[in-house]
Records
---
Amino acid sequence: MSTTTAVTPLTTADAEALVSAARRAAEAAGVAVSITVLDAGGHLLAFRRDDRAVLISGETSTRKAYTALQLNAPTADLVDAVKPDGPFHSLPTALDRPLLFIAGGIPVHRDGRLIGALGVGGGAPEQDHSFATTALTTLA
């Protein structure tokens, strides 16, 4: 008989901590962003759009989080995979899903298991990725 250890799912408190940490990192850089946190099922746990953030950043932050969740990888690591010669080049159009292969989405793990994802949109892709990875350290 095998035993499995239950992993605590991503909680609302975790999601709020991620949003707060990403927001602080973006504010320190002078960048207005939107931040999305999804649970392991892809359900929205937390969302915040700064007043000055471009409107589309709400959509991009959510799509980045969804992409990171579905592929269990940071979106920054997937950018080359969807280029014309990449292994996933047709993926963005092959599925009727809101995938977005721009840096700023990262999966969230606990005890080695995928429990959700975080997406940041509104800055340059490298900035969004940095804000997200900085926020992730709050759960460590």
---
Amino acid sequence: MSETRTETRDVVELILADHRKMEDLFRQMRSVEADRPAALKEFADLLIAHALAEEAKVYPALKRYKDIDDEEVEHGEEEHEEGNQALLALLEVDEIGSDDWDEKLEELVEAIAHHTDEEERTILNGARENVAMERREELGAAFLEERAHRLKSGCGSVDNVRAIVRK
């Protein structure tokens, strides 16, 4: 199979690739040897763009499939809100590497890990089983387009995350 992860248009694989990237960024944010501010900025942009693209392009389409649990999709949206709140708390910490930073980072890791685990087991497996590849690729293209648009807008800035959380 010559297709690599970056070439895929399957929305399931694209979402999974973002989840793995977020895990990598968590490792960087935990490491005193990494550029933690850069990792946080990249993570914030990716998390917000990813969640907004899922909510705009993927979740509404998946709700139309009778074998995909609407409650799981709605729960995924609620967990995005929890992740956004945890991200805002971390973005508002004054000193990277402080005890407060470490505490808020672990709260963010916990919220996101819980969400990605549930999403992968329920929503994404449901999509694999019930959504034809052609449709998953259409959703993937829409997801990528929306995500790219959001990334270009600096969606992970503390002001934007604050606005999203306070909606």
